[in-house]
Design a protein that fits this description.
Elements lengths: L13 E9 L2 H18 L10 E3 L2 E3 L3 H13 L3 E2 L2 H9 L10 E7 L7 H15 L8 E4 L3 E5 L7 E5 L6 E2 L7 E6 L5 E3 L5 E4 L5 E6 L5 E2 L15 E9 H31 L2
Parallel strand pairs: 12-14
Antiparallel strand pairs: 1-15, 2-3, 4-15, 5-6, 5-13, 6-9, 7-8, 10-11, 10-12, 13-14
Length: about 280
């Protein structure tokens, strides 16, 4: 039978392949340039935001305030901050592990009392509206990605918060008290387990930062929102639309190369044995 010509069309299926990692290389440099420009031009060159340094090919440092602005910059670059659930999933899958570094997640609202009572009062009505609540009974998490940083002369450090229009704060009753845990829920938050190998630390009132520490503990007892250290890291997710057929072809090509290399090593080894 005569061979028919192959149909040439476009792939019907496209797959979104998320990538996760730190701010490294040229992307990290471009981020830092854009971030520093925003600090100078949009936030009055506020020294509180000047926490990032590019060293050893990676952006180092992080604070609650800076993570909010980092999210805005990343969005403009076609990327975003990684969600806690994504960081947990990546570690369990042995894809990416933040162990040894801390990662800022956002803030936890409990009440309009100290600490950070000014910022707590600023967010209270916005959180109630977003959750359709008359009273906030449980700790509420607002991720950095869902916050907007604003200039506010009356606020500590001259910086305040607004919820973005698409913000989705969520209540986490488990964050009311210190607890052990091993597993996390769909939002990447601790599920209380007295026999758990990890620990969650909290406070009883006000507004605090929320972060994953270098030992994989989750902390919301830290209320210095401007504090940064060199072991802080920003974790980024970038979703790329990849033609699945092309992606599979690349994998097959790489696999074929590996098989060829192994076969060559095998043939050389057999040849040496026969010549002995």
């Amino acid at each position: 039978m005569k061979q028919m010509p192959k149909f040439e069309g476009r792939p019907l299926i496209q797959e979104s392949i998320p990538r996760i990692g730190y701010l490294q290389g040229d992307f990290g440099k471009a981020f830092l340039e854009a971030y520093n420009t925003a600090v100078k031009e949009k936030y009055n060159d506020n020294r509180i935001l000047k926490v990032f340094k590019f060293e050893d090919n990676v952006v180092k440092g992080s604070s609650t305030y800076s993570s909010v602005l980092a999210g805005e910059i990343l969005n403009s670059m076609g990327a975003r901050l990684a969600k806690p659930c994504e960081i947990e999933s990546a570690r369990k899958s042995n894809i990416f592990d933040t162990r040894g570094y801390y990662v800022d997640y956002g803030v936890v609202f409990r009440s309009v009392d100290r600490p950070n009572e000014y910022l707590a009062k600023q967010l209270e009505s916005q959180i109630k509206k977003a959750l359709n609540l008359k009273k906030i009974k449980d700790p509420v998490v607002v991720l950095s990605e869902h916050l907007e940083l604003i200039n506010d002369e009356k606020a500590p450090n001259g910086l305040g918060f607004n919820l973005k229009d698409y913000a989705k704060p969520f209540a986490v009753p488990a964050l009311k008290k210190d607890t052990n845990f091993s597993e996390t829920d769909k939002n990447g938050m601790p599920i209380s387990d007295k026999n758990g190998s990890r620990i969650y630390y909290t406070i009883g009132s006000g507004l605090s930062g929320l972060y994953l520490d270098r030992d994989l503990y989750v902390d919301s007892d830290w209320y210095y929102l401007d504090c940064s250290a060199s072991d802080g890291r920003v974790v980024v997710v970038s979703e790329e639309n990849v033609q699945i057929e092309k992606y599979i072809a690349e994998i097959d090509e790489e696999a074929a190369k590996k098989i060829e290399e192994i076969q060559k090593i095998r043939d050389e080894a057999i040849a040496k044995i026969k010549n002995q």
